[in-house]
């Protein structure tokens, strides 16, 4: 599937807002000919809009009848239409009903108040009204976007998904419940210090010990299993990991620009497996603090959910094999730092934290590392509930933003949750200074 920028006028290949390229399929003959859009649900999910909205928009612009079957995932526009023409119309829909009218960011939600439709921007915080003269607005008012179910941030028809309502809504499967129960039994740092006061946790820092650990790490990197759909040779990844270890042994920790140049030299800057090797070889027991330094590099390398999953696999090997001291408190702080720097997505983190896999480490080690993510996932649940409450409160207020109350945020700010407060300082905004990656 081809992936393009949501704003196709933006040529930046690192643009974070992406969607599948619209595809069509012509069916029927004569008067019964029709154009089917097989990936409309995927496009709608990327735009956080119900798939019926862009489909109806096509019908309004083309003067054609549309057929919507959400259960069967079929979205049809009567007549034979060119793919490029539909893509241009989709750009028009995005500009009129998705992009913020102030900052042109697609991270918006539609709000209906007093018969008017507003785009509520989550990036700049402003609201802008859509063109109420368009025919689609009548359909949107009659079929408003459903509100999110609590605990399912980003899910629902408003993001192109279906939220099941009833007795099974929001329930966890057996594995999730078991992980949460076991996570509650993880001892705190104070309990560990009290129970294991007589145990020696020091690390041998002699030259022989450091060399032995580096050799073992290099061997483990070389034995990383490739995905079935990727036939690349392991040579570049082993060379990449060995280069980082050699630099560290020489007393020099490579900077973000050096690492990125090395990935370009080896031709692996776009490969998801690079993230796994990077985290295992470059980061240390101070990984939550090191994320701040390497955030520009990670933003360039992490371009899809697959990259994020490989990055989380590297964290499993980092905390489970190389630096066990990251368990239990270091892992949630590391995840928080990645999340606050927009490197890790909420949905990917949730899925990773509630499922056990032996792809990167053995099952027991995987379970131990992922259980440590429970405080971070609980914080995400609390933040999701707060967002839902804020949405409900926002519907009662005046929809138009006069731009004069921006300075009140600091006075009304609530106390940060424990995990967020622990990560404060490790997820600072690196964009305040110039990154040496800008020169690449």
Automatic annotation (TrEMBL):
SUPFAM superfamilies: ARM repeat, Translation initiation factor 2 beta, aIF2beta, N-terminal domain, Zinc-binding domain of translation initiation factor 2 beta
GO terms (BP aspect): formation of cytoplasmic translation initiation complex
Domain W2: 230-390
Keywords assigned by UniProt, alphabetized: GTP-binding, Initiation factor, Nucleotide-binding, Protein biosynthesis
Superkingdom, natural source: Eukaryota
CC annotations in GO: cytosol
CDD domains: W2_eIF5
PANTHER family associated with the record: EUKARYOTIC TRANSLATION INITIATION FACTOR, EUKARYOTIC TRANSLATION INITIATION FACTOR 5
Protein's UniProt name: Eukaryotic translation initiation factor 5
Annotated organism of origin: Malassezia cuniculi
Lineage of origin: Eukaryota, Fungi, Dikarya, Basidiomycota, Ustilaginomycotina
Gene: TIF5
């Amino acid at each position: 599937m081809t992936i393009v920028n949501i704003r196709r006028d933006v040529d930046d290949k690192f643009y974070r807002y992406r969607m599948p390229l619209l595809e069509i399929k012509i069916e029927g003959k004569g008067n019964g000919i029709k154009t089917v859009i097989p990936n409309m649900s995927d496009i709608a999910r990327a735009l956080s809009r119900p798939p019926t909205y862009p489909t109806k928009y096509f019908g309004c612009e083309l003067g054609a009848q549309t057929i919507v079957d959400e259960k069967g995932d079929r979205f049809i526009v009567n007549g034979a239409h060119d793919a490029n023409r539909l893509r241009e119309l989709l750009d028009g829909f995005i500009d009129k009903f998705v992009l913020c009218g102030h900052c042109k960011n697609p991270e918006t939600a539609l709000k209906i108040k007093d018969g008017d439709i507003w785009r509520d921007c989550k990036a700049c915080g402003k609201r802008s009204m859509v063109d109420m003269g368009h025919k689609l607005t009548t359909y949107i008012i009659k079929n408003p976007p459903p509100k999110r179910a609590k605990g399912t941030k980003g899910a629902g028809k408003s993001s192109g998904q279906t939220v099941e309502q009833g007795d099974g809504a929001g329930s966890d499967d057996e594995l999730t419940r078991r992980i949460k129960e076991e996570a509650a039994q993880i001892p705190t740092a104070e309990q560990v210090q009290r129970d294991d006061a007589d145990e020696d946790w020091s690390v041998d820092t002699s030259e022989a010990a450091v060399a032995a650990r580096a050799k073992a790490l290099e061997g483990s990197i070389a034995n990383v299993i490739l995905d079935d759909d990727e036939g690349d040779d392991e040579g570049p990844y082993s060379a990449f990991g060995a280069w980082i270890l050699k630099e560290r042994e020489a007393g020099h920790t490579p900077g973000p620009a050096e690492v990125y140049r090395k990935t370009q030299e080896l031709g692996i800057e776009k490969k998801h497996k690079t993230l796994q090797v990077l985290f295992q070889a470059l980061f240390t027991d101070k990984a939550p603090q090191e994320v701040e330094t390497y955030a520009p590099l990670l933003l360039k390398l992490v371009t899809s959910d697959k990259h994020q999953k490989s990055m989380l696999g590297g964290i499993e090997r980092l905390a489970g094999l190389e630096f066990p001291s990251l368990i239990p408190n270091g892992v949630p702080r590391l995840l928080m730092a990645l999340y606050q720097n927009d490197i890790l997505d909420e949905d990917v983190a949730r899925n990773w934290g509630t499922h056990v896999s032996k792809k990167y480490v053995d099952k027991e080690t995987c379970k131990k590392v992922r259980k440590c993510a429970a405080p971070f996932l609980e914080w995400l649940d609390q933040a999701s509930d707060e967002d839902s409450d804020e949405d409900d409160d926002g519907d009662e207020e005046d929809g138009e933003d006069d731009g004069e109350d921006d300075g009140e945020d600091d006075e009304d700010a609530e106390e940060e949750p424990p995990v967020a407060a622990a990560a404060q300082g490790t997820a600072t905004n690196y964009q305040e200074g110039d990154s040496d990656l800008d020169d690449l």
